[in-house]
């Protein structure tokens, strides 16, 4: 017989893990609806100076299924890709000028970008965390349609007759949108994986919370 055991060790993929203080995430609102990873002003840049610091509007973590905490790592966002900002930029290995072209210069060749297929394959087990209009969201980094990185997506309000009912994210690759709470797509039966989020009393300044996320648990 299988009794519930409250002292059973938690499965590692069901463990919460911290992704940082709430104040380290810019609060994205409808006034700055660029793609998520675009650097933005942060409320608390953890600096006592007057220097204004911009940080990406989201963070990405690699969380292999069933991995110990030591194997969970933050994935650096490639800002050059982000700043260029269009889908075709990602993975484009075409040089800006060839040595034979009239515009060729003596500048060292640009490092080759990762091909798009590799970028997409590498998104496995990655969670994307961001704050939109004061609410934290954690979702799979890869778009459920064709695995495009949703850090390049744009969050928005889902409205009906001007009343905000929910929030969504639009993937720039083909323009599909997904509800940030249910994961439902605006077409087909595709579903975005939504992770659980908890805010706990943090170790930072008073009132600052720490953000924890974990994969959504299967019932039963
Ligand atoms: S890859 Fe995201 S909509 Fe197609």
Automatic annotation (TrEMBL):
Keyword Iron-sulfur part of the UniProt annotation: yes
Signal peptide positions on this chain: none
Keyword Ligase: no
PROSITE patterns, A to Z: RIESKE
InterPro entries assigned to the protein according to its UniProt record, in alphabetical order: Rieske_2Fe-2S (IPR017941), Rieske_2Fe-2S_sf (IPR036922)
Record's keyword terms, sorted: 2Fe-2S, Iron, Iron-sulfur, Metal-binding
GO molecular-function terms, A-Z: 2 iron, 2 sulfur cluster binding; metal ion binding
Cofactor: [2Fe-2S] cluster
Domain Rieske per the UniProt entry, residue ranges: 106-206
Residue spans of biased composition, Basic and acidic residues class: 109-119
Compositional bias (Low complexity): 92-102
Record Gene3D superfamilies: Rieske [2Fe-2S] iron-sulphur domain
Region of interest called Disordered, as start-end residue ranges on this chain: 86-119
PANTHER family hit by this protein: FERREDOXIN-RELATED, RIESKE DOMAIN-CONTAINING PROTEIN
Protein name per UniProt: Rieske domain-containing protein
Annotated organism of origin: Diplogelasinospora grovesii
């Amino acid at each position: 017989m299988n009794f519930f055991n409250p002292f059973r060790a938690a499965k590692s993929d069901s463990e919460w893990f911290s992704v940082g203080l709430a104040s380290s995430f810019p609060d994205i609102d409808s006034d700055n609806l660029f793609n998520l990873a675009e650097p933005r002003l942060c409320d608390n840049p953890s600096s006592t100076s007057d220097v204004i610091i911009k940080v990406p509007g989201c963070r990405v973590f690699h969380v292999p299924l069933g991995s110990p905490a030591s194997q969970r790592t933050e994935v650096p966002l490639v800002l050059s890709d982000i700043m260029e900002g269009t889908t075709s930029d990602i993975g484009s290995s075409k040089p800006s000028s060839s040595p034979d072209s009239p515009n060729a210069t003596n500048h060292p060749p640009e490092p080759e970008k990762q091909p798009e297929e590799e970028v997409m394959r590498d998104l496995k087990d990655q969670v994307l965390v961001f704050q939109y209009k004061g609410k934290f969201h954690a979702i799979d980094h890869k778009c459920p349609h064709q695995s495009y990185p949703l850090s390049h997506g744009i969050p928005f309000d889902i409205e009906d007759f001007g009343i905000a009912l929910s929030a969504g994210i639009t993937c720039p690759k083909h323009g599909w949108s997904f509800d940030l709470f249910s994961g439902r797509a605006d077409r087909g039966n595709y579903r975005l994986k939504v992770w659980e989020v908890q805010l706990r009393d943090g170790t930072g300044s008073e009132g600052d919370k720490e953000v924890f996320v974990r994969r959504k648990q299967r019932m039963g």
